[in-house]
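Worked example

This section walks through a single chain of length 273. The input is the sequence exactly as stored; nothing has been trimmed or padded.
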Amino acid sequence: ALMANNAAKARGIDMTLSDDNPIGDFYSFLGAQDDLSTVLLIDAYDAPLTAHFDNPALFAELSRILSYLYTVIKSCNARLRFFFMTGVLKLPNAGIFQSMNNVTDISCSAKFADMLGFTREEIRENYAQQLMTAAQKLQTTVDDLLEKLEAHYGGYSFDDRLSASVFCPKMVLDFLSNPTTQFDFSQLPGNELLARLTKQGAQPNFSIPAAVYIDDLQGANIVDPIKSEVLLTQAGILAPKKVIVPGIFEVGYANKSVIRRVSELGIEMRAAS
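Given that input, the structure is written out below as tokens.
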């Protein structure tokens, strides 16, 4: 509650949440707003859940709390002008999306395929000076540098047609701020989840490349027995590489940074015969 209150104060928002009933106070705050007056953004909605997927009791309790929060948000739908929520994993078994059945899921929409990553053209156009500086420092060409960036930080696709291939923005920006031939992968998407799975001894049980149904990507189950390839594709460790038939992807390692991280953790993924 304190963090939310401080954030609201810093932005000139008159909202005070108590430690005893923060969600109830948030309901009162939203309910007091004018219709179509509020923009609500939620980032990494699944972070509390993925941090405790190995603790079923705590996972269930967090799911209950978050479900209550999203029920409150839905009940105040008339007050919202715009609502946007992001996350890594879609967790239907957490019960959250039963409360949020009035939102539109754009995760696999071709219309928004390049919204959450940099395309090669965007990097070339918007970071031309940084690319030139990095290329000169590393004694290479801009074109060659873009190839290397894509090999290490690209390879992600988010729509059912694979119409766009994008780079991880955080990793690209970190590189451009400090160019080096040692491509850093500490900010790899899914890094924490991959490390936690390894710590729990959850070795992937599939071969690379693997086939993944789009319907599974839109609702992986993290508590019950899971398909490793689905979970790791949602987390960004694996990425769709081609459409086998409509509705089914072939997935493989997203990029060279993923391969280095997988090797570092000692994970063994069989090569498909």
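What to look for: The mean pLDDT is 85.
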